Amino acid sequence: GAVVSQHPSRVICKSGTSVKIECRSLDFQATTMFWYRQFPKQSLMLMATSNEGSKATYEQGVEKDKFLINHASLTLSTLTVTSAHPEDSSFYICSARDWATGGTEAFFGQGTRLTVV
Amino acid sequence: GDSVTQMEGPVTLSEEAFLTINCTYTATGYPSLFWYVQYPGEGLQLLLKATKADDKGSNKGFEATYRKETTSFHLEKGSVQVSDSAVYFCALTFGNEKLTFGTGTRLTIIP
Omega before A8 cis (within 30°)? Predict the structure, then answer.
């Protein structure tokens, strides 16, 4: 199946700094990518839908100024956590659909474990 | 809104035991249903899916049947292996929209 690569897999940052997470579709073009967040012992919650060449669509309750999403090309979406705080520590994971094959399956990256100290 | 309720873990079984992980959903209409698996250090992988009532998804010895009457999609395997140790997520979607996930169930198989 298609491959989605997410980087970094783990990151520790100081409170107040910004962290960028990359999500790449390696062998297909993804006009849409999805960013999820998972708290311990909780579901993956959709944060936003990243649209190539246009603004991301954020889910209710997600601060778009804090979680900046850029989808500048058909193979790359980035999530930047700005002015990170300890409560932003979480597991972030992206996914993309390969529309060339119908888009019925979502492919996921490996996830990024963010720890803010 | 739509939701998925999944059996809480962790679940620990001996090798060759029978596995059931329960999953029920709440949704308006008839979603597509999925089981995803996440092995340590890896991303989620699609394990199996069913797109309409009474469909049975199967892969790697795992099975799940879409039961409209009970709004369930329980995951089963007749004889688990140590290599099946992972976190399993039940999920639903309508069309090609966002996925709604359950909380995940951590499965550990001991030799």
Answer: yes
Q: What is the reported pLDDT for A47?
A: 95
Closest Cα in chain B to A99:
B96
CA proximity to B80, closest of B110, B51, B100: B110
Q: Which residues of chain B have pLDDT under 70?
A: 96
Contact A18, A83 (CB under 8 A): yes
Interface test with B, best of A21, A42, A108 (most B CBs within 10 A): A108
Rounded to the nearest angstrom, the gap between the alpha carbon of residue A37 and the centroid of all alpha carbons in its chain is 8
* DSSP-assigned letter for residue B80: -
Tell me the chain A residues in contact with residue B86 when contact means C-beta distances shorter than 8 Å: none
**Residues of chain B with C-beta less than 8 angstroms from the C-beta of A111:** 43
> pLDDT, tens digit, for every residue of A55-79?
999 999 999 999 999 998 889 999 9
Question: Distance, in angstroms, between B17 CA and closest chain A CA?
Answer: 25
pLDDT in tens, B69-99: 999 999 999 999 999 999 999 999 987 678 8
Plot region of A67 (φ>0 → left; ψ -120 to 50 → alpha; else → beta): beta
